[in-house]
Design a protein that fits this description.
The protein is an alpha+beta fold and 424 residues long. It is built from eleven helices and 18 strands.
Length: 424
């Protein structure tokens, strides 16, 4: 059966134009990243807060996916609330134990305003993000804190980032080249901090292992919306469901919520609390470094080894974290790097060699904080493959065997052990 499970789903013998629409829509679907997924996921707000369910015309799942694919919103501004609940333990003093704390800003030649590191803050806790866009060449994203503000502005070929707390500026050029995939750089619209970007990534995983249905309506940020529900058909995945609220008029995703199969709070949720489709003021995208601010040029930072540091891009939050678990994409993109895929769809598992000798245990690291952190994450397991440790979050689990093999995916611990046994 096709993944779109409604009475209006496409049947055999459908017209060519319908099949073409399905192929177009299939470009948008949900990869779940593997190693380092914490850098890519964004968390929890009360699901679909609003003032009742609006009465909207009936729409099929296929039509709603195509509505998202056809959405061409060029001008938008608003506020997005984002949080994360991966179930990770408190890092406590781990950073200082590893020697990372206490460094003065920029002491390693970098900049506190560098988006490649600053935007990782979105991977934990609750945040408020202000966004604005006026076409493909003008975007702004501002991460608001109680006492400071961090902004990334894309205006033409320039990308500026400013950290008000440290009064540092990061500047890069060549954002236009990134659009043609000629550069490692990208602009704020590539950051997975909005329901739209998360939904586009999510829709990339829809295949025959996926159920896609319309789950009623909702009102988000004062807008009437349809709810698209995406769920793995088979058991074994840690992903329970993904719910996307889609604006009924524009097709723009307004809210994205990923709940785990284990239940409880959402792992990933990002939703507009305010949205406006009017043209933002041109001054929104203007930026001049404040007087006295330290300015770091991106090209110079890269020359010191900070490659792609100008890019607050999906590549930092997904590609470098491991590829999507969507069957074809993961295998094709990762096998060249010594990685291969076991299984398909939502139960896909990435197998690779860490190049090491397994995970240090006890006092092997010589650092009690590090050992305690590893112990809090890991469960010792054994099987035909030998023995190893499973590191777990509420979404991604990774088995590292004592001989250095690794198995990672949005699957249960038992599924990882079974994969390791089969691969032995």
């Amino acid at each position: 059966m096709a993944p779109y499970e409604t009475d209006d789903s496409a049947k055999a013998g459908e017209p060519d134009d319908v099949r073409a629409g399905r192929r177009k829509a299939s470009r948008y679907v949900v990869p779940v990243t593997v190693v380092g997924v914490a850098a890519a996921t964004i968390g929890l707000v009360p699901a679909f807060a609003g003032s009742g369910d609006p009465d909207l015309p009936k729409i099929s799942a296929q039509e709603l996916v195509e509505k998202i694919a056809a959405s061409d919103v060029q001008q938008v501004s608003g506020t997005v609330k984002i949080s994360t609940d991966l179930g990770l333990p408190d890092l406590g003093g781990l950073e200082s134990s590893l020697g990372g704390a206490g460094k003065p800003s920029g002491s390693d030649g970098g900049s506190s305003a560098d988006p490649s590191s600053k935007l990782l803050e979105l991977a934990t806790g609750t945040h408020t993000v202000r966004v604005a866009a006026d076409g493909p060449d003008k975007q702004k994203l501002s991460l608001l804190d109680k006492a400071s503000e961090y902004s990334v502005i894309h205006n033409g070929d320039d990308v500026w980032a400013y950290d008000s707390q440290s009064n540092e500026v990061f500047h890069s050029t060549g954002a236009g080249e990134a659009k043609d995939h000629k550069s490692g750089k990208a602009a704020p619209e590539d950051v997975p901090a909005t329901p739209q970007k998360l939904a586009e990534e999510a829709l990339k995983a829809v295949d025959d292992t996926t159920s896609v249905t319309v789950d009623g309506t909702a009102q988000v940020a004062g807008r009437d919306a349809y709810k698209l529900l995406i769920k793995p058909k088979a058991s074994g995945s840690t992903v329970g469901a993904i719910s996307i609220a889609v604006d009924s008029k524009t097709g723009l995703p307004l809210k994205f919520t990923l709940t785990p199969a284990s239940g409880g709070a959402a792992v990933v949720d990002a939703g507009f609390t305010q949205v406006d489709f009017g043209k933002p003021s041109a001054s929104t995208f203007d930026f001049t470094p404040p007087k006295g601010a330290k300015v770091t040029e991106g090209d110079k930072a890269e020359a010191r080894g900070h490659h792609d540091s100008a890019a607050p891009s999906g590549e930092h939050f997904g590609k470098d974290a491991g590829k999507g678990l969507e069957g074809g994409g993961l295998g094709k993109e990762m096998e060249g790097g010594g990685l291969k895929t076991i299984g398909e769809g939502w139960n896909s598992i990435a197998e690779f060699d860490t190049g090491g000798q397994g995970v240090p245990s006890g006092a092997a690291t010589g650092n009690s904080d590090v050992d305690g952190f590893l112990s809090s994450l890991g469960d010792k397991v054994s099987g035909k493959f030998g023995s190893g440790t499973v590191f777990k979050t509420r979404l991604i689990n990774v088995l590292i065997t004592d001989n250095g093999k690794a198995y990672a995916g949005a699957v249960t611990k038992d599924a990882l052990v079974k994969a390791a046994n089969a691969a032995k």
